[in-house]
Write a structure and sequence with these properties.
mainly alpha
Length: 190
């Protein structure tokens, strides 16, 4: 799954960066917040349905499905710089039928590669109008990334441990809460 999603997601993130350099940020942020709330609604329906038996439903790792998931994750992530995993995990779970824990791990690996490419493209001003300057220099961005990385790594390790230690329903509830809070904040409710 990783080999099918990562290249498409990386290209889509760069395309999202180019679009973000052309479009109005606050409007995109509110639209993306609404999209996250729609994902939360879908997750609520999933929690209300009986649990799926993945052994009875084989994975559907086709190029089309993986490419669709990568594009759906990459464009919004490139546009707003957030939310890739919140989109990719449910898509890998539902569209590709990966078990939830495998979807989370695959999403993390895809984001590791594609987010770095997207960050460099954004900082380099790919697709920005000629003569516009970014708000943050490459040096400042690297300094911030270096300062934030230890907390990110620690959070990833703790999150991965909890994903394997907690029941799947608890992981889904955590994802649901994250979708609701992030979506509400993006549209200005919270």
């Amino acid at each position: 799954a990783l080999r099918g999603v990562a290249p498409v997601a990386t290209v889509a993130i760069v395309a999202g960066v180019v679009l973000s350099n052309q479009l109005d940020g606050p409007v995109l942020q509110r639209l993306f917040g609404c999209f996250m709330l729609l994902l939360a609604g879908r997750e609520i329906l999933t929690l209300l349905r009986p649990a799926r038996d993945h052994s009875a439903q084989p994975e559907r790792c086709t190029s089309w499905r993986l490419g669709t998931a990568g594009t759906a994750m990459g464009l919004p992530a490139g546009l707003l710089g957030v939310g890739g995993g919140l989109i990719l995990v449910p898509l890998l779970d539902r569209l590709v039928r990966l078990p939830l824990r495998q979807a989370i791990g695959t999403s993390s690996a895809v984001i590791l590669v594609s987010a770095g490419v997207g960050a460099v493209a954004k900082l380099a001003g790919v697709g920005a109008a000629t003569g516009t300057d970014g708000d943050v220099s490459m040096g400042t961005a690297l300094l911030l990334a270096t300062a934030l990385a230890p907390g990110g790594v620690l959070g990833a390790v703790v999150g991965a441990s909890l994903t394997h230690a907690l029941p799947e329903r608890a992981v889904r509830m955590a994802l649901l809460l994250l979708l609701i809070v992030a979506g509400a904040r993006m549209i200005g409710i919270a």
